[in-house]
UniProtKB/TrEMBL annotation:
Keywords: ATP-binding, Helicase, Hydrolase, Nucleotide-binding. It comes from Blautia acetigignens. This is UvrD-helicase domain-containing protein. Residues 202-535 form the UvrD-like helicase ATP-binding domain. It comes from the Bacteria. PROSITE patterns: UVRD_HELICASE_ATP_BIND. ATP binds at residues 223-230.
Length: 692
């Protein structure tokens, strides 16, 4: 049947039909595959006693089985994508006249490629396909895109946008400007969900340039609050996975994210785009895992923040211990260890001897590039090799361990905890408690210096070699020291993003300024000043709080920000504020999907959550399913009302936000907290203060 693919509605019917047919074929083939797999299993169990003694037949059988299982899994994956596409097969279209031609060729764009059969010309193109770049980057008129064979030029005759839901056309229109602002307005104006949304329909040109950048090894993006950094990072991962399928698998990517709630918040996007989810971890958790053989517990960032907020007068060594000077002192100390740590002596094993002078020669010259605490292993290996050659037989495990131990005994200690403690004392700081591994707990200020010392002494842990792309979100929350560690551990491509205005320190940290000094010329810096999340009223208010003047706002208007002060004793005034919040909460039907009460500290958030839960339950609110108190160990949250601290709300967004801070706290950190809270609001913001 010929199809007029200029008519979006007719094309939808046509392509839906084709999708259904293809899904039916795939289902048949999956069933057949399953039967084959069962057959192979049965054959094996019936015949395995008679299989040839060398196991060849068994091996062939296993290989065939694995092959069939893989093939089936791929088919299941494909079917899942096509089923998803049935709901909304495409969202855009470009009519492109190739240079030298007269008639336009029509390209429909969706979340994945779709053809009637594998290998046929696609009916729908994946948003990441080269030709789809036209849709995001150009208006009507001359345009070009990069294809594997080079640059393709021509002219865009027209561009269309579609909204299809449940397989039905909701609207379609021709747009001659880039991604039409009206659609973007509709997307941004809609109620928030508990998860970050995919933005494939409305990626903006400057965002597209970041998503499709494959040239730069390290991209650093300074983006204003709500400019789409996190969204872009995830779409970029999807793009890279699509374009480098052979070399890059989802298991090769790691996201360093602020916490596990954030991981949950963004976990829907990649599967929605037909990709597998990827590993995410907070840097604190990563450090804790890396230091497991050195200490039994580490404080995390939140302990540090809580301390700064609740005990502002207690002096902290955090900054000092992350400073360049401290690190230089440590480097100096590491140099002295080269001598001080070593007690060289002859090593004898059976009739073989390695003289002290030879060991010294190997240690300081031949193997000098190996980190100090791994170096003696190389010296020992060198000896073991020689012994094995001379006696013409390999050592067994026990012998090797015995010899190795003799060499390792030349270190006075290999315990990084002990060395770090001595280093602290050598600089005039109090040392760490002399306790067994099970009782060792590091303060936050010491966690990264110890980790740094460990890497400098032992070298990089090879288990991270599989990571080919690292994403660092909320880059402003990492210190220079943490970046030095990241550089040592991950010599791979990176996407680093954040916002200096959302620093969780008492002063803004300009990461984008110092990163080039760490990573060198491989870095490309991009600044995004356009914000999409908040209404103009909210963004203007928040910018005023933080003294930001250079932000470009997407013109979407809403209610003015409500400011209110509840004076009085702390507990009483907080309760009054909470009563007001319950009154103003717009979480009924036809109202908002999500709201948040954002507080300053863990203690305040917990207290407010307790009161709110009780009062809301008494008022008949479904607190079982529509209320969450987010704390540092939470891993997910639900639609409805969320109560949490500003530092856990980072990166998230809610339709309606109530910021509730004690008026008395005018510290720089609390100011940052209010700014972070304010920028979480999509549609309505209430800035409440309580106490005197
Ligand atoms: N091109 C776009 N189309 C539709 N929505 C967009 C677009 N860009 C950003 N948004 C929306 O703007 C909001 C903010 O995006 P995102 O959370 O990625 O920003 P961010 O820069 O990481 O924010 P923050 O640093 O404040 O946490 C999200 O709701 C996102 O869906």
């Amino acid at each position: 049947m010929a199809i007029d693919n200029r008519d979006g509605e007719a094309f939808l019917t046509f392509v839906t039909d084709k999708l259904k047919t293809r899904i039916a074929h795939i289902s048949e083939s999956i069933l057949e595959g399953q039967k084959d797999i069962e057959g192979m299993h049965e054959y094996y169990w019936e015949n395995y006693t008679e299989m040839d003694q060398y196991g060849y037949e068994n091996f062939d059988n296993q290989q065939a089985l694995l092959h069939q299982i893989n093939a089936n899994e791929q088919q299941i994956h494909l079917r899942k994508r096509f089923r998803k596409m049935l709901d909304s097969p495409f969202f855009g279209r470009v009519d492109f006249i190739f240079e030298g031609e007269y008639e336009p060729e029509i390209f429909y764009i969706g979340i994945g490629n779709f053809a009637e059969e594998t290998g046929h010309t696609p009916l729908i193109y994946d948003w990441r396909a080269p030709v789809s770049g036209l849709f995001y980057d150009y208006d009507k008129g001359p345009a070009s895109y990069e294809a594997p064979l080079g640059t393709i030029t021509g002219e865009i005759a027209s561009k269309w946008q579609y909204k299809i839901r449940n397989g039905k056309m909701v609207y379609q229109f021709e747009s001659d400007v880039k991604i039409d602002d009206e659609i973007l307005m509709a997307e941004l104006g809609s109620g928030g969900s508990v998860a970050l949304k995919n933005i494939v329909r409305t990626i903006q040109k400057e965002q597209n340039a970041i998503i499709r950048n494959t040239k730069d090894k390290i991209m650093v993006i300074q983006g204003a609050a709500g400019s789409g950094k996190t969204s872009i990072a995830l779409h970029r991962i999807a793009y890279l996975l699509y374009h480098d399928r052979k070399n890059l698998k989802s298991s090769n990517i790691l996201i360093l994210s602020p916490n596990s709630i954030f991981s949950d918040y963004i976990s829907h996007i990649l599967p929605e785009l037909g990709e597998e989810n990827i590993r995410e971890m907070s840097f604190d958790l990563f450090a804790y895992k890396e230091l497991k053989d050195t200490v039994s517990d580490c404080e995390d960032r939140y302990d540090q923040i809580e301390r700064s907020l609740t005990m502002p007068d207690v002096p902290s060594l955090y900054k000092e211990k992350q400073s360049r000077e401290f690190l230089n002192q440590m480097e100096g100390y590491l140099t002295t260890l080269e001598d001080e740590l070593m007690n060289f002596h002859d090593v004898e094993y059976k009739n073989f001897t390695r003289k002290e002078e030879e060991i010294i020669e190997l240690f300081y010259f031949k193997f000098q590039d190996i980190p100090l605490l791994s170096r003696m292993e190389a010296v020992a290996e060198n000896f073991i090799d020689e012994v094995e050659t001379l006696r013409d037989s390999d050592m067994d495990e026990e012998e090797r361990a015995f010899v190795m131990e003799k060499f390792m005994g030349m270190y006075e200690t290999r315990d990084v905890y002990v060395m770090y403690s001595r280093f602290l004392e050598s600089c005039g700081y109090p040392g760490l408690p002399h306790v067994q591994l099970a009782d060792r707990r590091l303060s936050y200020e010491d966690v990264y210096p110890v980790l740094y010392m460990k890497y400098r002494l032992f070298g990089q842990n090879s288990s991270h070699n599989g990571i080919k792309h690292l994403v660092v979100d909320e880059m402003q929350d990492y210190s220079r020291l943490q970046y030095l560690i990241i550089k040592m551990m991950f010599p791979c491509r990176m996407t680093i993003l954040g916002d200096k205005a959302q620093t969780m320190e008492d002063e803004n940290q300009d990461v984008i300024g110092f990163l080039p000094k760490i990573f060198g010329k491989d870095i490309r810096r991009i600044v995004m000043n356009k914000s999409y999340r908040n209404t103009v009223e909210i963004a203007t208010y928040a910018n005023h709080l933080a003294g930001i003047t250079d932000m470009d706002l997407f013109e979407r208007h809403g209610a003015p920000v409500e400011e209110k002060h509840f004076p009085g004793k702390e507990s009483q005034s907080m309760e009054q504020a909470l009563d007001e919040i319950i009154k103003k909460l717009e979480l009924g039907e036809e109202q908002f999907e999500t709201a948040a009460v954002i507080l300053r500290t863990e203690g305040e958030a917990k207290k407010a959550a307790g009161i709110l839960k009780e009062k809301l339950a008494a008022a008949g609110f479904d607190t079982e399913n529509r209320f969450s108190y987010l704390h540092r160990d939470s891993t997910s949250f639900c639609k409805g009302l969320t109560v949490t601290t500003f530092y856990l709300a980072k990166g998230l967004e809610f339709d309606q936000v109530f910021s509730l801070f004690p008026e008395a706290d005018t510290s720089a950190l609390a100011k940052q907290g209010r700014y972070i809270a304010a920028t979480r609001a999509l549609h309505k913001l209430h800035m409440y203060e309580y106490g005197n």
